[in-house]
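Hi R.,

Here's the chain you asked about this morning:
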Amino acid sequence: MVSGLPQDKPSDAALAAASAVWVAALGETDAASTPGLSLFRTMLPSPGFARAVQNVPTDSSPASAEAVMQQNYPKGVYCQASVFAAGGGFDACVAAAG
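And here is the predicted structure, written out as tokens:
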């Protein structure tokens, strides 16, 4: 998932190359919002889905959460659209962020 302000949206081709989807963040013109803020929530999983956030221990440890959620653990990084679009998608953004 890639999120940002509408003017920063990568091209559809760049999103497709990275197997990503676009979710627009709230814009700067939304008077009741924080610019760039997006809120996401989890849905109740299938009872057999072991990597659900509901199965994370309540020890407040990101490592515990990542151990349970594995590839479903959310990771975020701020990135210029040009870095994402140049190729490499999320991995390029992680590398650019250091």
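One quick note: The longest strand covers residues 2-4.

Cheers,
M.
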